[in-house]
Design goal:
This protein is an alpha/beta fold. The protein is built from eleven helices and ten strands. The protein has a domain of 252 residues: Rossmann fold, CATH 3.40.50. The two termini are 65 Å apart. Helix 3 crosses helix 6, helix 4 crosses helix 5 and helix 5 crosses helix 10. Strands 3, 4, 5, 6, 7, 8, 9 and 10 form an eight-stranded mixed β-sheet that branches. 37% of the residues lie in helices and 17% in strands. It is globular, with a radius of gyration of 34 Å.
């Protein structure tokens, strides 16, 4: 490669009217490395874009939280402490834990398994969501209540030779309080946005974080198993899938005396009676055959600011739940009810079941958002 530098000049001589031209040509031959360096050097626009991208990446990496063992231990300890405090609140004991205990005690004979599943909690660290934090702590309270009922029943029904309590955990989240003849408690949790922090906390809390999204289609494993579903503030489609999936398997056997597995499930979640009424809707047709216990952790009417006024929440909440206000409690448990099949209307439900129009299971679309 050669570069030519040309310089020229002209002179006018008046006497002879002649033009004189002088040319100067300088030829240089650059080195190979200077050419390569010039070819590889990016333009200014590309340099500016690259610098901007590096700056954004560095900012994202700087803001991304790192999961440490100290962070996990602190969250687990906080959840356990809050769960214990929730069990002492009046509305939690009367409106939720008492119906759960009665549900288990009336069906414990021949019981083989209790599956406690939680959907719709979302990220449950205190910094991410106070409602999610309280709901995860309440899941631990439900787990503790189920363990207490199973342990009490096992002690009363176990033979004298097997009267010694043995704590066995076949897998994380499964509790077998006696070697034989005792139902196992399986506690699981699913949320599509759960991350590494939530998985590590669930492992320490004895809760299995499921990897597969079943869109609420959970059923008891067999006729002697029970399902307790905790679905706080979840999409209505998940709740509908739960009820439908527990009617579909046994619908064709309704004439033979089967009412389906609906009698074996208890739901703590969105109150169906609070939905907007729709014509020919499956959920509307199901309401008359369900028994409801309203959770009364709601803000009192007439309070314009809606803060620090919650029914059935006494003054001990401030000392038992550090950093949690009454408004946080109201938001976490608002519009919630305990729902199960009304056994007094079981015969009517048995007759209406063949005529009930069951919708298909929803696995995508805006209803799941």
């Amino acid at each position: 490669f050669f570069f030519f530098h040309v310089w020229s000049a002209s002179f006018f001589a008046p006497a002879g009217r002649q033009y004189v031209y002088i040319f100067y040509i300088h030829c240089t031959a650059p080195t190979m490395w200077s050419v390569v360096e010039a070819k590889q050097k990016p333009s200014r626009r590309r340099r500016e874009e690259s610098a901007a991208r590096r700056g954004q990446t560095d900012a994202i990496l700087t803001l991304a939280p790192t999961v440490s063992s100290r962070m996990i231990s602190a969250l687990v300890r906080d959840l356990r402490r809050t769960s214990q405090a929730l069990r002492g609140l009046n509305f939690v004991c009367c409106d939720i834990l008492s119906p759960v205990r009665r549900f288990l005690e009336t069906r414990v004979d021949g019981l083989t398994r209790v599956h406690l599943i939680a959907l719709g909690i979302g990220p449950f660290s205190r910094q991410e969501s106070r409602s999610g934090f309280l709901q995860m702590a309440f899941l631990l309270a439900l787990k503790k209540e189920c363990e207490s009922v199973i342990q009490t029943q096992s002690k009363s029904s176990a033979p004298a030779a097997m009267g010694t309590q043995v704590n066995i955990f076949p897998v994380a989240g499964a509790t077998c309080l006696y070697c034989e003849g005792s139902p196992a408690l399986h506690t699981s949790f699913f949320d599509p946005v759960a991350g590494e922090l939530h998985a590590c906390c669930c492992e320490k809390l004895g809760v299995i974080m499921e990897k597969e999204n079943r869109y609420g289609a959970y059923t008891p494993n067999d006729l002697n198993a029970l399902l307790i579903a905790y679905l706080p503030h979840c999409p209505w489609a998940l709740l509908r899938n739960l009820f439908v999936s527990n009617l579909l398997p046994c619908r064709e056997f309704a004439g033979a005396g089967h009412v389906g597995q609906l009698r074996s499930i208890l739901v703590v979640g969105n109150d169906l009676r609070g939905r907007a009424r729709r014509d020919n809707d499956f959920m509307e047709a199901l309401i008359p055959f369900l028994h409801f216990v309203k959770v009364r952790a709601e803000q009192k009417r007439g309070n314009p600011r809606g803060v620090d006024k919650v029914e059935d929440v006494d003054g001990s909440i401030l000392s038992g739940l550090r950093g949690i206000s009454r408004n946080d409690i109201a938001c976490a448990f608002s519009d919630t009810a305990v729902m199960q099949l009304n056994m007094e209307r079981e015969a009517e439900f048995f007759e209406a079941l063949p005529r009930l129009r069951l919708p298909p299971l929803v696995r995508d679309g805006p209803d799941l958002l």
